[in-house]
Amino acid sequence: MVTVGNYCEAEGPVGPAWMQDGLSPCFFFTLVPSTRMALGTLALVLALPCRRRERPAGADSLSWGAGPRISPYVLQLLLATLQAALPLAGLAGRVGTARGAPLPSYLLLASVLESLAGACGLWLLVVERSQARQRLAMGIWIKFRHSPGLLLLWTVAFAAENLALVSWNSPQWWWARADLGQQVQFSLWVLRYVVSGGLFVLGLWAPGLRPQSYTLQVHEEDQDVERSQVGPSGAGKSTILRLLFRFYDISSGCIRIDGQDISQVTQASLRSHIGVVPQDTVLFNDTIADNIRYGRVTAGNDEVEAAAQAAGIHDAIMAFPEGYRTQVGERGLKLSGGEKQRVAIARTILKAPGIILLDEATSALDTSNERAIQASLAKVCANRTTIVVAHRLSTVVNADQILVIKDGCIVERGRHEALLSRGGVYADMWQLQQGQEETSEDTKPQTMER
User: Fold this and answer.
1) Distance in angstroms (rounded) separating the CA atoms of residues 95 and 107
2) Do 213-273+353-450 and 282-352 fold alike per CATH?
3) Distance CA 19, CA 447 (A)
């Protein structure tokens, strides 16, 4: 039969803290569990108001396999479970080796508080992982580490196990392993030390939350796919296109097309499969035919004319006195904005790439020209993977997937209707632009009357 004596019995007192060449066990196992429990409670209080349940639907969700690392997280989860269970195992070990001696009451308090603190850490770990999964499904990657409360909880637990080492020479502790009880307690302490140390190291790495920082996935079976990237100026949209075109290489991570790392192929090979229609088309002081032929310099005159017809600029070219031999002037000053964009589209048609990048291709045009250019772009992008950068959201409402980028991170992902229903950044941008367009429409008649 196990009996419970006074609070400290022979393993105290609570104060003074130092006695017989080491810390008093009663003091140590009162201070440490109380501190860990207080930190665990604080971490829970800080985490609960931030917890939101967001459930993406259907096609908006992504594969979990593409996200945070699973194997190290399973180890982290196992260690967190052990940290919650080991204090109770230590209490069971003391009870099993008591041999009729009364147990100090502080053991009960310490075991319960440490188990509760470990349970708080385990719960926070699971919650943060669950939030990471929800954010992955929405394409949101803005968190790369655990919460400060959870990190502090694991740090204090590991520091406490190291603090116990200062009592190595104290006869009140288990270091001597003089009997079965001390041997059991020493073995459990070694396990606790490994567990707390492992959680501390894995906590700094955060394998369960660390993402592949930017994911733009196009499924192999999709033959006609359009991905659009929207966001405020300076968010990094155009930078992504430059990375795809390898104007410069990334310092970490990788970019793959059809599973192949683009840094492992030549720039010429990569760029031969990508066509770009930029916001400001660069034209040379040469003939219209040669400017279109820049898309594929080996193309013949018939192919150039066919590309111009597909881009809807053939009739405009034939209206010039010299037709396709018309000089466009420095930077194409003899052509209108819409004609310049159609030359860029004709170049892309002539190149016939597998991937098309549209970098705000119609943002500098008026509404009528924009709609005409959009119709030409739709023909060009048919049966091709297309990535669109846009400020004007009305140009991407039919995209298969829209990525909303802010401060270099994907904050939302989905189709137009799904993003509007979420009421997030995209919905705010849409309402703002719709309001501006309505204001513009209201002021047009007044301007004409004047």
Assistant:
1) 10
2) yes
3) 91
Three-state DSSP at 370 gives helix
Which phi-psi region, left, alpha or beta, contains residue 29 (left: φ > 0; alpha: ψ -120 to 50)?
alpha
- Report the alpha-carbon distance of residue 157 to residue 161 in Å, rounded: 7
Q: State how far the Cα of 396 lies from the Cα of 358, in Å rounded to an integer.
A: 11
**Choices 3.40.50.300, 3.40.640.10, 3.10.310.10, 3.30.420.40: CATH for 213-273+353-450:** 3.40.50.300
The CATH architecture annotation of domain 282-352 reads: 3-Layer(aba) Sandwich (3.40)
For residue 56, say if its preceding peptide bond is cis, omega within 30 degrees of 0.
no
**How many CB atoms sit inside 10 A of residue 339's CB?**
20
| Residue 88 to residue 110: CA distance in whole angstroms | 9
Q: Mean pLDDT, the chain, as a whole number?
A: 79
Q: How many residues does the chain have?
A: 450
Helices (H), 139-266: 148-163, 180-205, 237-244
Contact 226, 390 (CB under 8 A): no
Continuous segment of H or E residues that includes residue 256: strand 256-257
Taking 50 as the pLDDT cut, the residues of the chain under it are 50-68, 139-142, 212-215, 219-224, 445-450
What's the number of CA atoms in the CB half-sphere (13 Å) around residue 108?
12
Task: Say which residues have a Cβ less than 8 Å from residue 402's Cβ, sequence separation at least 6.
Answer: 227, 228, 229, 230, 396, 412, 413, 414, 415, 416, 419, 426
What is the pTM assigned to this prediction?
A: 0.53
CB count in 10 Å sphere of residue 27: 20
Q: Enter the tokens of residue 323.
A: 């037709």
Backbone angles phi, psi at 433, to 5 degrees: -70, -35
